[in-house]
Amino acid sequence: MRILIVDDNPDDRLLVCRELDALFPDADVVEPCNLAELDEALEADALDLVVTDLDIAWTNGGAVLSAVKARYPRCPVVMFTGTGDEMIAVELMKAGLDDYVVKSSRQLPRLRASLKMAVEIGRSRVALSDREAELVAMVAHRDTIVRELHHRVKNNLQTMIGLVNYRGRQVDAATRAHFDEITGRLQALGAVQTRLYAFGALDRIDFCIALSDVAQSLAEIYDHARVVRAFDGPLNLEIDRAMPLALLCYEAILNAMKHAWPDSAHGNLTITVRTSGAHPEIGIEDDGIGFDTGVSIKGLGTRLMRSLAEEARVNVETVSTPGKGTAVLLRFA
Amino acid sequence: MTSSLPQTAEAASQVVLVVEDEALIRMSLAIALEDSGFTVIEANGADAALREFAQRQDITIVITDVRMPGSMDGIGLCNWLRDHEPAVPFIICSGRETLTDLQGFHPSVFRVAAKPYSPDAIVDHVRQMLGQPDV
Question: With an 8 Å Cβ cutoff, are B24 and A159 in contact?
């Protein structure tokens, strides 16, 4: 333990030394008598406590406080002075002084308690900043793991897409189309995953951006449809909802791309996100041939959409009239 | 969609260097490109890619991943291409967050394909960048 006493009055130094000796008998006490010795003492090693006077022949308490705090910000500093007043004390406390004890017979009993408390404060500061450094390191480590995990998930999805695509090259065109649907679904999952990481918060996402990615990847495959996006604001969604919703939107857009315009006739697909109402709403509307909603459609797509809607907690309403297009509305429950 | 395309002499003369450390991803992309008639050479990282460039002069386009082990990552490889092979265009496969690292590049020489991508989409990118019509 290393303690510095800065005071030009040897009697006062002795007084402080006695108190310190009672508290910390093994402490190494340094008593500089000029600026050079003070600098040397500050340079030599870290300090556990500094006790300084305010008015010193060769410096002043404020300068000592600044010099100590500049080098050892966690080191406690106690001012032990016969001069000064409350105003000065307040100013110095603002500058980082830990305690202010007046050299008077009335306050003298307080000195030992003050020195003891200051050292304890110093030790808690050290413990606290060590803990803080540990936490910073833990957060950095967590970020590394999350980054690696994110990279792994994306690459695993990419591997699956690659393998499905590879197998799809060895089958006939009709079967191949089924394989392409699978890779499309994997890509929709990938879009949410990518946006999740880019969004910063790992449990939420601006769904509009992921929806754009999903629509874009389908528009690249089915280029006969012009995709129009009308989003009235960000749609901040938790991940357990965003994942099934992305797949649901994928199915709805895929249905439109595949069935709305037979023989690859050109058409418009409008994707809207309305967040202004009490419950957000996503619309996927095409101007294609439409169908009779009275006829029940069975198949994986329909069943998939029902399950996904349940998981995403949205109600799906399909409005379609033969010849007048189809609108799929996803209303948040 | 690009399955079972006839090999064209024009495509076969185009040599695509696929740089990806994960073998299955690299393989599936290479097969999709080969199916579309391109000649494909593979490298499992930027270091291997540089060795290919040292050995041959016919590489027409590079497709590279970003995060790869070795002395250089995908961004480093793109920087190297800009400095040593400025005429060779490249496709960088990563999230869009990579875009900020590519600000010194002219948009005409590179494209970004977000992972996970469809190999067919990459084939389309290659065709477009090499001025071939979509099939």
Answer: yes
